[in-house]
Each structure stands twice: as C-alpha cells, then as structure tokens.
Write a structure and sequence with these properties.
- The chain has two helices and no strands.
- The protein has helices at residues 3-42, 51-88.
- Helix 1 runs antiparallel to helix 2.
Length: 90
C-alpha cells in the first residue's frame, strides 16, 4: 500500500468521523446556546437546566440519523476490509 492510498484512507476516516459526530455536536451546541439565552433572559442560573434538553435533543438526533450513521460506518468498514483483502492477495 502506497502513501497516497494511506492518505486517502485517513482522509476518508476523518470525513466519516465528521459525518458521525457532527450532527449530535451541532444539535448540542444549538440547544446549549438557546438554553443559555433563556437563562439570561429569565435570570435563572441553574446549571442543571440545560442538561435534560441537551440529552433529549441528542437522543432525538441519534434516533433520526442513526440509520445514516450506521450506513456510513458500514460503508467505510467495507472499504477498509476490501483494501486489506487487496493487500493480502498481492
């Protein structure tokens, strides 16, 4: 396996990581900002107030995008395994 192929696999691995981790992190960020604004407007300074909405939002995101994430991870795994088989047959 040459350096170009390894670099391509590393690039693909990074893209898969972004695809898998990006949506829940963005949802948590947005919910956190909204809850911070609500706390600032109402002057409620309770630390645990943001926890439950974030957990519910992340859980909902995983329910909605879970199949996409499994497909993306499965495709990447098949790609890596095919490359391993190709190296072994040389």
């Amino acid at each position: 396996m040459q350096e170009v192929e390894i670099a391509g696999l590393l690039r693909e691995a990074m893209l898969v990581c972004v695809k898998l981790a990006g949506p829940p992190l963005v949802v948590a960020l947005v919910v956190g900002i909204v809850m911070s604004l609500v706390q600032a407007v109402t002057q409620v300074s309770e630390q645990t107030l943001t926890f439950l909405p974030k957990v519910v939002a992340i859980f909902g995101t995983l329910l909605l995008l879970g199949s996409f994430m499994i497909v993306a991870l499965g495709d990447f795994t098949r790609l890596v395994m095919d490359r391993i088989v190709a190296i072994g047959s040389l």
